[in-house]
Amino acid sequence: MTLASWKGGVGKSTLAVHLAGCLARRDKRVVLLDEDERVGSGARWASRGETLGFEVLRPEDVKPKKLRNVDFVVIDTPGRGGLRKLRETLKRTDVLLVPTGPWVTELDATRSMVEALRPHAEFEKVSCVIARAPAVGGAGKRARDALSREGVSVASTIIRAYNAYLTAAERGCLACDVRGGASAWSDVSALTSELFSA
Ligand SMILES: Nc1ncnc2c1ncn2[C@@H]1O[C@H](COP(=O)(O)OP(=O)(O)O)[C@@H](O)[C@H]1O
Ligand SMILES: [Mg+2]
């Protein structure tokens, strides 16, 4: 699975780390490939300390041996690159997951990316997920249902906004290891089950 978006700060790296972490806690062998050379969130996250349960690789570290016997590869990408780059990415992945905030400016950025891909065969690999939605109120559900009505594949699970993700990033752990992180982790668990049938 590859996480991508044309907008930065939508939660790609946070989700990449947590989806990989959740799969690892379900005894799956997972590698997180951190392709964001500039920010390197996943690599930094792992370097902060606590056990994540999966290996984080940079592109230069990828060797066939490292990927042998792996159940899932989660790829975190930088929030840039045009249509051509995106289509290349789609060719080498099973699912392209596009996190998007629930507000109109964020949804419009997501729509322009998804619509650019719609004419191409790889479109069927694209799925959106509403992320950083307020934990109270219906903005997340409204955004999800709007995308769905437009014929965009969108996860039924909504990733709500919780401070546990920020604490987890600070400590280099997962939200489930943070006090008060249970709600965040329940979203991650639901999304993992939905996306990977794992
Ligand atoms: N579900 C969430 N709830 C609260 N904060 C979040 C959530 N997802 C991401 N963040 C925060 O938003 C910021 C951007 O997230 P990040 O995962 O780095 O996005 P991207 O990789 O798309 O640029 C970070 O400070 C991160 O801690
Ligand atoms: Mg990132």
UniProtKB/TrEMBL annotation:
Name of the protein in its database record: Plasmid segregation oscillating ATPase ParF
Domain CobQ/CobB/MinD/ParA nucleotide binding: 2-37
Species name: Deinococcus yavapaiensis KR-236
PANTHER family (alphabetical): COBQ_COBB_MIND_PARA NUCLEOTIDE BINDING DOMAIN-CONTAINING PROTEIN, P-LOOP CONTAINING NUCLEOSIDE TRIPHOSPHATE HYDROLASE
Record-linked Pfam families: CbiA
Tree of life domain: Bacteria
InterPro entries cross-referenced by the UniProt entry: CobQ/CobB/MinD/ParA_Nub-bd_dom (IPR002586), DNA_Partitioning_ATPase (IPR050678), P-loop_NTPase (IPR027417)
